[in-house]
Design goal:
Strand content: 5-15%
Mean pLDDT: 76
Order of helices and strands: EEHHHH
Helix content: 40-55%
Number of strands: 2
Low-confidence stretches: none
Shape: rod-shaped
Oligomer: single chain
């Protein structure tokens, strides 16, 4: 029996001593401490729905799901980028070149007009 505040000591299979703090020692079993992975899978309620997939999800098609999601994110980002570039209009001319001048409609049209004049 250990006193309050003293760690419990366990002998592992490899004859090494495993020390756990007192606050954790009451809830962690010896096997659990050796596995350090949350233990084995336990029964869970099947009627509970979770947007993250629930307990121990590991879908077999996670790679294709990830590719599809990143493709959708890219397509939406590209669409928003194009709409933003078409609607961008600066009422005050920048004092120095800025990156959005390369794709903003205001400056690309101005650049095309200058090329046509020459």
């Amino acid at each position: 029996m250990t006193g309050r505040g003293q760690p419990r000591r366990y002998q592992t299979r490899a004859s090494q001593q495993l020390t756990l703090p007192v606050s954790l020692s009451s809830s962690i079993t010896f096997e659990h401490a050796l596995n350090m992975g949350g233990g084995s899978r336990y029964p869970y309620p099947k009627h509970v729905w979770s947007p993250a997939g629930g307990w121990w999800t590991r879908p077999s098609n996670w790679k294709s799901n990830t590719t599809i999601v990143f493709g959708m994110i890219f397509a939406i980002t590209y669409g928003v980028w194009r709409v933003s570039a078409d609607k961008e209009w600066r009422h005050v001319e920048p004092s120095r070149p800025i990156p959005s001048m390369m794709w903003a409609k205001q400056y690309t049209e101005k650049k095309q007009e200058q090329e046509q004049e020459q």
